[in-house]
């Protein structure tokens, strides 16, 4: 039991204990990283998983040759694309029921307020939400689900899905590969991740405020 709890602890906090996991489980780390990214992007009940920091730290370990950079990028791309695709189809299948009816099982796990916020965000910004959402925790998990709920065409969704996955995975993994082992960055990684999230959210928020003010001026 203790071993199982330790293993689960490593998985839940793998962004902070990736080195320990690699030492203990070797190449199984690729399967675990794949599973974490797939679940975070593919299942709406796992928005708390550490996607951004995990990609960055994975790139840092690839720089020290403890992981293979090309295998890491390939697996994470497949996980990100397939996860979003599964989430999209879940949205197409059960999404309308979530918004229109009360389902006890879903009510227990889904954050309706976060889902509604993402729905409003998606309605305002259209397909580009799928790309931008990759860099915004929680929104990243709900955006493909809402795309399914909103009946976005599958071909159009996949265009933005693949584009967003390429930008997200390549940017964060390569940033980790080239800069992740710098002592200052390692020490303040959490702060840097928060700044990065802010950099992704602020332009969108400012754009929304500008559109709102423009709409009010036109009405006036």
From TrEMBL:
> Which keywords belong to this entry?
Cell membrane, Membrane, Transmembrane, Transmembrane helix
- The protein's predominant localisation is membrane
Q: Where in the cell is it found?
A: Cell membrane
- How is the protein disposed in the membrane? Multi-pass membrane protein
> Where in the numbering of this chain does the VTT domain appear?
49-177
Segments spanning the bilayer are 29-49, 69-90, 131-152, 159-179, 191-210
Name any GO cellular component annotation. Answer: plasma membrane
Q: Name one Pfam family in it.
A: VTT_dom
* Stored InterPro entries: DedA, DedA-like, VTT_dom
NCBIfam families this protein is in? PRK10847.1
Homology family: Belongs to the DedA family.
Name of the protein: Membrane-associated protein
């Amino acid at each position: 039991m203790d071993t199982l709890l330790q293993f689960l602890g490593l998985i839940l906090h793998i962004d902070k204990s990736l080195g320990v996991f690699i030492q203990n489980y070797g190449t199984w780390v690729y399967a675990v990283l794949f599973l974490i990214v797939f679940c975070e992007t593919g299942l709406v009940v796992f928005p708390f998983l550490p996607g951004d920091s995990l990609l960055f730290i994975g790139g840092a370990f690839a720089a020290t040759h403890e992981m293979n950079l090309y295998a890491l990028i390939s697996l994470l791309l497949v996980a990100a694309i397939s996860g979003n695709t599964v989430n999209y189809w879940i949205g197409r299948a059960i999404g309308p029921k979530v918004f229109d009816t009360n389902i006890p099982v879903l009510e227990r796990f889904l954050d309706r307020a976060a889902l509604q916020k993402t729905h409003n965000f998606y309605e305002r910004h259209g397909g580009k939400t799928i790309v931008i959402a990759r860099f915004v925790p929680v929104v990243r998990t709900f955006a493909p689900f809402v795309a399914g709920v909103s009946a976005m065409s599958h071909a159009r969704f996949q265009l933005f899905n693949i584009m967003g996955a390429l930008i997200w995975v390549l940017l964060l993994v390569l940033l980790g590969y080239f800069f992740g082992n710098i002592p200052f960055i390692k020490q303040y990684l959490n702060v840097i991740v928060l700044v990065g999230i802010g950099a992704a959210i602020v332009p969108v928020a400012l754009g929304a405020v500008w559109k709102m003010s423009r709409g009010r001026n036109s009405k006036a």
